[in-house]
Design goal:
It contains 16 helices and 30 strands. It is of the alpha/beta class. Among the domains are: about 230 residues, no CATH class; about 120 residues, no CATH class. The strands form four sheets. Strands 8-7-6-5-4-3-2-1-15 form a nine-stranded antiparallel beta sheet, with no helix packed on it. A hairpin with a 5-residue loop joins strand 5 and strand 6.
Length: about 675
């Protein structure tokens, strides 16, 4: 699952629903730390991760006018722990900020900011900056606690026209969306819903207590709520999501266009996803949501009154697939802008995902077609953020039944599933015609999982861990660090590795490698834009761009070369899988849209032909998803999911970054307009 380096309060991610009771054996939340003495006022907040108490935020007002924020949470053995001391002026703008502790991946945090006489200076793990004329600007911390979002919103309330310049860059704007009354602690409280714009791909939601200091950040992923107010999250999130849905519907009506008659692409070179080649210039006619005709230039009649798109020798591809996502509402714009018209969701809140899928299908939200997998994990200290925690065969069967009744085609297992539960889970899924995939559970090897019935393995690191038996407890971050330290030492030509590849081939096991996230983990370094995003970063919203500077896993200087060599070993393993005839699907588990382009570039770098890579990201993905009778190729009668690309991606795979027109279900989208809507310039 995705982890994010950006300040979590600014994200509003979606995975699983709030309000579930803390399950037996749940991951232990760190105990709140008290305010230092003396303290003028203290406010304590609960950090709720996917409905479970996961941590705390304690806010302490000190006699000298400063405020200390103590923040920590636990997510599968990961999670930050920081102490922030901040001073603000009468406008609520930071005068000084000092943060120490560790970040989400347990790397050290040491951040400082100061402003005096209009001059601001700051330093953190990725940035060292200074600026004159900064008197009216708000510094957005690199490792700040979630309370910073509420402080920014309050500063915006005081600011002229609700706008404030940001440091290091950008501008924030505030928009009030309505109020909600709640009962908490036997008292009624009035909360006002605000949107803070200018930080990320979508506005950040925050609820401020009218006339008070308290705030709520409500999200299906990570929420921050005053101690004792936990029961208010469900109603606040419901109101917040209604507002989000209304804004998405307006954008969908404005940005998606159904042609009045036929839609014709003329002079395009059509990609044949069976052969992996581009044809000679031709014509493709779309009627409604289907492809009506295709042929060489001049051989296909053009219907009267048709809308014509001149291709001028550009490439026309079937819609791309991202086979590993955790779909969030704001992702739809980025997916379609990148030519991704179909995705496979591998862990989400079923109710939220079904609602988003319904709105996409109804034209009330912009997004890709969704094929869903149900998520299962076992309870324990490293459990995944989900309600679907199973410790017995009966519990597993019940969740599989629920997923099957929703139409899910697959079950994904996570790292805390007990190995002895895998065979009955496979049997229960088979009974309902469902595939089984996932992480390899702790204390189990990939070979054992395949022999037990896994249809697919998520993440390339799981293949390498098959050969590092001493790394038994792969629930911990060791599943990343051990591979980073040792993958380069594995002899991929050894008989043991070759035998494992033969087993994958014999069993028809699919591999979902998600190489781009390992490139980031193993080779990205703080202060440098992560590999593959250099040309993209300058155009992204300010906080997203800053997140690309975060680096990957914490790495000692003496291991720097080893981490990089280990990523090269992952590329060689991909080539070995391909040469052995093992099916590969392209998935990202990361930033929507842009990351799939990088994933496919890495496959070519590993030695696969660009045409082969495009085939596995279209026809091959549709086949694994069970949708290849309608999707994944351009032919009469198929669903009209098409991507017009400027260039020849069979010669240069990076041409897929230059998307000109996207058609999904016969509906036309302008990628530039979609990106602008998401704050991409």
């Amino acid at each position: 699952m995705r982890s994010h380096s950006l300040p979590l309060a600014l994200l509003g991610l979606v995975l699983t629903s709030p309000g579930a009771a803390q399950p037996p054996g749940a991951a232990a939340a760190p105990d709140p730390e008290p305010c230092p003495a003396p303290t003028v006022a203290a406010r304590r907040y609960a950090v709720v991760l996917a409905g479970n108490r996961a941590g705390y935020l304690t806010s302490c007002d000190l006699p000298d006018g400063a405020r200390e924020e103590l923040f920590a949470f636990n997510d599968r053995g990961r999670g930050p722990k920081t102490l922030t001391r901040v001073r603000r002026d009468a406008r609520g703008l930071p005068l000084s900020v000092a943060t120490k502790g560790n970040d989400y991946l347990k790397g050290p945090v040491e951040e400082r900011f100061s402003r005096a006489g209009g001059r601001a200076t700051w330093t953190n793990k990725a940035e060292h900056g200074e600026r004159d004329g900064a008197d009216g600007a708000f510094y957005v911390g690199y490792s700040s606690p979630p309370s910073e979002l509420a402080e920014l919103a309050r500063a915006l309330l005081r600011a002229p026209e609700g706008r404030i310049a940001l440091l290091p860059e950008g501008e924030a704007r505030l928009e009030a969306r309505g109020e909600h009354r709640i009962m908490a602690g036997g008292q009624e409280h009035r909360l006002v819903h605000h949107l803070v714009r200018g930080l990320g791909f979508s506005p950040a939601d925050v609820w401020l207590e009218a006339g008070g200091e308290r705030f709520v950040i409500a999200s299906r992923w990570l929420s921050v709520v005053p101690e004792g107010w936990d029961d208010t999250l469900a109603s606040l999130l419901e109101a917040q999501e209604r507002d989000t849905a209304a804004r998405q519907a307006e954008a969908a009506h404005r940005l998606a266009r159904k042609p009045a008659g036929a839609l014709v692409f003329r002079g395009v070179r059509v990609f044949d996803s069976a052969s992996g080649t581009l044809g000679e210039p031709g014509t493709v006619v779309i009627s409604g949501r289907r492809i009506a005709a295709i042929g060489l230039e001049g051989s296909v009649p053009i219907p009267e009154g048709a809308e014509i798109v001149e291709g001028s020798g550009r490439a026309l591809l079937p819609g791309l697939w991202d086979m590993h996502v955790h779909l969030e509402a704001q992702d739809g714009l980025l997916h379609l802008a990148a030519g991704v018209t179909s995705v496979r969701d591998l862990a989400n809140d079923p109710d939220a995902l079904d609602d988003l899928f319904r709105r996409i299908e109804a034209g009330e939200a912009i997004g890709p077609r969704v094929v869903a997998a149900g998520f299962l994990d076992g309870p324990g200290p490293f459990q995944g953020p989900t309600r679907a925690l199973v410790a017995t065969e009966a519990e597993a069967r019940e969740w599989i039944r629920r997923y099957a009744e929703r139409g899910y085609r697959q079950v994904k297992l996570y790292s805390s599933i007990k190995p002895d539960l895998v065979p009955p889970i496979v049997a229960a899924a088979r009974e309902r015609g469902m595939r089984v995939s996932g992480h390899i559970p702790a204390f189990m090897t990939a070979e054992q999982a395949v022999r037990t019935g896994y249809d697919e393995i998520q993440h390339m690191n799981m293949l390498f861990l098959n050969f590092f038996e001493d790394v038994g407890d792969t629930r911990t971050p060791a599943r990343f660090t051990a591979v980073a330290e040792r993958a380069a030492t594995l002899d991929l030509g050894s008989e043991r590795v070759r035998a494992f590849l033969r087993l994958l081939k014999e069993c028809g096991t699919v591999v979902d490698p998600t190489l781009a996230i390992f490139e980031q983990m193993f080779t990205a370094r703080p202060g440098v834009v992560r590999p593959g995003f250099e040309s993209v970063a300058p155009h992204l919203p300010t906080q997203v761009r800053r997140g690309l500077l975060d680096g990957g896993l914490p790495v000692r200087e003496d291991l720097d070369r080893r981490y990089r060599d280990s990523f090269e070993a992952l590329l060689r393993m991909l080539k070995a899988l391909h040469d052995a005839g093992i099916p590969i699907v392209a998935g990202t588990d990361d930033m929507a849209g842009f990351t799939l382009h990088r994933e496919l570039e890495l496959y070519v770098r590993a030695g696969l032909g660009a045409g082969e890579v495009l085939s596995l990201a279209t026809r091959g993905a549709a086949r694994v998803a069970g949708r290849d009778s309608e999707l994944g190729s351009i032919a009469p009668g198929r669903v009209a999911d098409l991507v017009l690309v400027d260039g020849d991606p069979v010669r240069d795979i990076s041409a897929i970054r230059r998307v000109l027109v996207v058609v999904k279900d016969g509906v036309v989208h302008d990628p530039s307009a979609l990106l602008r809507e998401a704050g991409v310039q």
